[in-house]
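Request from the bench team (R.T.):
"We need a structural guess for the complex before ordering more flavin-adenine dinucleotide. Sequence and SMILES attached. Just send the tokens back."

Command: build protein-flavin-adenine dinucleotide structure.
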Amino acid sequence: MNSSEEILILGAGPGGCMTALFLAQLQIPCTIIEKSQFPRDKICGDALSGKVVEVLKKYDPEIVQQFAEKDFQIGSWGVNFVAPNLKSLRVPFKSQKNNSQKTVPGFLSKRIDFDYFLFREIQNNSLINIIENTSYEKVQRTNNGWEIHLNNGKTLNPQLIIAADGAYSRFAKEFGNIKMEPEHYCAGIRTYYEGVKDLDSENFIELIFLKEFLPGYLWIFPLPNGQANVGVGMRSDVIKKKKIDLKKAMNQCIHEHPFLKERFKEAKIIDGMKGFGLPLGSKKRKISGNHFLLIGDAASLIDPFTGEGIGNALMSGMFAAHTAQLAIQNQNFSAQFLNQYDDKVYKRLWSELRLSRVLQSLLKYPFLFNLVVNKANSNSTLKHAISCMFEDLELRNQLKNPMFYFKLIFG
Ligand SMILES: Cc1cc2nc3c(=O)[nH]c(=O)nc-3n(C[C@H](O)[C@H](O)[C@H](O)COP(=O)(O)OP(=O)(O)OC[C@H]3O[C@@H](n4cnc5c(N)ncnc54)[C@H](O)[C@@H]3O)c2cc1C
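Reply to R.T.: structure attached below.
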């Protein structure tokens, strides 16, 4: 294959950019179309987890170093859980203790900056052909792939389409049969503030599980220059059932809730409330088919407990590039051949997605959450175990075992 138009990526978000970069590393050219012009905003919590760092390092350890030197990011060293009983549990990310070089385990960076950072990487790569400010219109199957009409008047005939066009992907809906299912979908809103009091000194992210938003949460994430990303995420079926106006409820909590109102008394809004959908990976879906692969939000891969999706978008982009390489080598783009992509993605992600689904449903019982936080605050071994749970899935599994809570109560 030598034409960059034979592999087409839809969308240059983190998932699309990462796919293009891994393809280029494998010496495979591609074209990527993006409807916006960079730098562009994306509604998000702006937290870049350890998994983002893991995939970026797999691509090139240097890129993490370069990112860590930018002044538009800050390192994050842990998470502060606030249980429904308003007791806090500060849990450092484990890497801090184990890592002799003290690499930052996670970052916080506005998406307008992080996404542009990745976008510039693809701009600098001669194997990647970028068509910005362009969307797709009619998409039709052909004998050997696709005929896709762009809104700039151009028509492309790729053999393989990698859909990375996010939560509202038209391609995923039409050809991947991906539906919006309220039980596996979350609505999120984000606001940028300055002047929020008591932001964490080590940039721990703050997840506040107020009973008003269960099984979701309100977050306060510190950003550079004393700013903060503040938002709420909640499952769509619960919003509908409880008839909640999420923006109104968030505003009310910030101005009236005893836990929050003092902290926001002098805070100023820099950018008002904006909403966007989060397609959750709490259900296994078919994410490939004849001549196509779906990645990131287009494949509904967001963690149902934490709401993190950037890491999974990058991870699925990496697997998509590897699968595309094999498809080219074998000249086989059939649904049957590309199914190995689903296997790779779910082999890596399914156990944690499933577990997060269980944790999300446990939030129906806020007393369990209160119990864990109360006990961990007075038991350093338990606190350390919870810290390790972020990286150790086996340990995290204990949270769904009734014996874990039995031991907490009577142990
Ligand atoms: C409120 C909220 C808070 C969140 N907080 C976090 C968090 O803190 N940490 C985290 O890890 N995740 C978070 N997420 C999830 C995260 O934003 C997504 O999982 C992530 O952006 C997925 O990346 P992606 O590349 O798949 O899609 P996107 O980032 O959505 O990128 C898709 C790209 O495709 C382009 N596009 C769309 N349609 C077309 C088209 N027709 N033609 C061409 N291009 C198109 C878009 O312009 C965009 O650039 C949050 C989401 C929301 C809504």
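Two things stood out. The domain at 182-278 is CATH 3.30.9.10 (D-Amino Acid Oxidase; Chain A, domain 2). DSSP finds 14 helices and 19 strands in the chain.
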